[in-house]
Specification:
The chain contains 28 helices and 19 strands. It is α+β, with helices and mostly antiparallel strands and 850 residues long. Helix 4 runs parallel beside helix 10 and helix 10 crosses helix 11. InterPro entries: Beta-lactam/transpept-like (IPR012338), Glyco_trans_51 (IPR001264), Glycosyltr_51/Transpeptidase (IPR050396), Lysozyme-like_dom_sf (IPR023346), PBP_transglycosylase (IPR036950), PCN-bd_Tpept (IPR001460).
Amino acid sequence: MKQEPVGLFEKYFIIWFRIVTERIWTGDKRLRNTAIAIFAFGALNVFLLTGSIKDFFKLKEAAVYDIPSTLYGLTDKGEYEPIAEYYKFSRIPVRLEQLKPEENALSADNRHKVIQCFLSTEDNSFYSHNGIDLKGIARAFVVNIMAGRVKEGASTITQQVARLKFLSIERSIARKAREAWLAILLELVYPKDKILEVYLNEIPLGHGTIGVGAASRFYFRKEVQDVTWGEAAILASLTTRPTQFSPIVNPVSSLNKVRVVFRKLVENGRMSVADAEKEYAALDEYYTNLNRSPNDSAFSDRLNRFPYVTEYIRKNLIRSIGSGRLYNGGLKIYSTIQIRHQEEAEKALLPALQRQTIESNQRAFRNIDAFDDLYGSGYSLIADLYDLPDFKFRISRTERTFSSAYQEDLRDEVSALNLLVGDDYLGDLIDKNYTSQTTKDHLLPVEGSLIAIRPETGYITALVGGSGFRSDNQQIRPFQAFRQPGSAFKPILYAAAMDYSGKNPDPEKNVTPATLFADSPLQYLMEDGDEWAPENYSSEYSGFILLRKALEQSKNSVAVRVLEQVGLSHLMDSLRGLLQLPGRDIPYNFSVSLGSFELTPYELTRAYAALASGGKTVNPISVLYVEDNAGKIIKDFRKDFEDEDRKQIISKEAAFLITSMMRDVVEEGTGRGVLSYGLNRKAYGKTGTTNNFRDAWFVGYTPELVTSVWFGYDVGTISLGRGMTGGKLAAPVWGRFMARALDREPAIDFPWLSEVKVTKKTVCRMSGKLPSGQCHDLFEEYFIPQTAPKEVCNDHGSSWNVVESRPNLPSTPTVQTEKKKSEKIEKQPSSSKPPKRKKSVFSGDEEIDY
């Protein structure tokens, strides 16, 4: 038995339906009532198929455009200047008021030539119909029936606006019905001029342009209000099939279509035949001088001064505000990038990478015919058995051989000969080949990274991610290249060790800049029975050496002994706090002291920024805030930045000590290359070079700026070449950038220096202890008060030797090799056949001749 519906709406609808039908079938006018009911239900069905109540609420969106967003950087004057645009399609909104009437009107209609061209070709009766042109529909129907195909459309400009704003390009009766319905609604809500304005700003005109403003700038390199009659006709000719009728892709088809536009202008009385012929003939110069690639697009024309910065910020903004809003919202994005810093970063790093590519001379794999030579016949058999496609190269072996030989051996000679001959055409071909295929294409490019951060604010002021931003080279290496820091990690280790000693003083284990360590070979027995033997770069050792001097000369053995003396477990919290590695941890082994684990340049720079800010963590930021098109702030990253805690990871005193030690690295140690470009302020930093010269680093800072520079191959096993150390490659680039970037900024001091509580003691340069009467080589050293030495030096005996010191550099320690009595020295195995030694995994980069 069928049950009655239980819902209130169902019951009400049934009752209403019964009442209506009862009224229709009662009385004398049953036939008329039935016809009215059928018509009403038919109209309701048509409305439900073509329209919706929601249509009334979304009409306001018709006048809202998707506008590109703009990225801003800071000038030297502190003013914001556009540096990039974000969009998928180029659109430059144009108001109808900008299209001024023609001063010399060729007809009674004196509207701007662009308006007249589009009205003539798309909808000549636009200002007289109500959204649907019934005459046009009838005319198009007859023309298409006679032609046997769709030759002429009947959509009015209003219908096209409805389709462009709200519908798809699907060809169906339902879509056309909705298009007509929405066109009627648009005509009821908006005046004609506004509808025309929306149309001119929404019509796609090819090569990634939307609207006449963007198309005019792309095709003619001028604003739309300044175009000629011929150029306006070209724009109007692109509405149906922009690719087919593009003057850049198909000049002949374009000219033919432009002729149709002029014929329409004549037919509609907007131009005389003579004027049309004159304006059409004037286009010859444009088409004759048109020398552009068919693949050109408005996307390649977009403002993009610093591609690596643009891409990095784009990725971050998509995560926070979404891609749709970024590309279409007309946002104004205010970044921390300083234009001068960014320009100097690219000038310093990119040429150095190009030079190093040639110097390192690592060739890419070029024997691409090896597979075909060795397995070509076998592949044919397998292809027959398993129905595989043919193995083909994109170009023939002959073409590849010629291209390679021409590029490497012949091109320079041909270019030189052409200078004597003076053939312009040949010269253009050679220049184009140089542009599209450089002489180093057969070499693996040396890549690199440069990132600069303000230590007090965390503002990222410059960012370079590699040797050049191209379709095949878009990795942002400051954030994506995980590489071993090598000796550049030592300042972080030493700072953590000195901080621990300051908080847990122990006269036997304190680590200070004047602590004496043995610089001698080390051997550790591994669990597998092998030995780990970390070595210095030159395999030479200095005996006993102060920690300050050990950092200056980048002694690996000393770094291991520091970790051994303090204990890795005591340093892990400080190291984790300085490096801030979410989702990753620091390996728990002694090789950490030599920078054995991988960090990105950004992570290493952020750790140095913590040292430069007095031991506090730094939270880098690249975008300050984002405004919408109306000037309202929709995302304020400054607030998020201020809400993040800056934790005091190590003491200001430890940060001060390691900073003073890195000053010696720059003045006397492996970082002297920093000074080659005349940096006019004190600098502090450390070089880094990994095993087999795979990576070259310099990371350092001034009170104003923290910067890292890295050189290396993307394939981490490839060497840069013997002797290619951080001091030789990275330090000069760092110095050039810092000297030029900070040239117009006043020198300042660290703001936290006044809060530092250290003591200065005169100590013996040989032992690091308080001097006795027999100590003649003395210098002043800084200490955390509770770690200051209390023991008097008694290491000289009666036969001490005075080491000559430099009076003008009293803080530079001198190396003595006399043994310290309390020092524990590892003994070498006494057996005639020593156990297998594991070669040093990492090399230091102590001072060498370069």
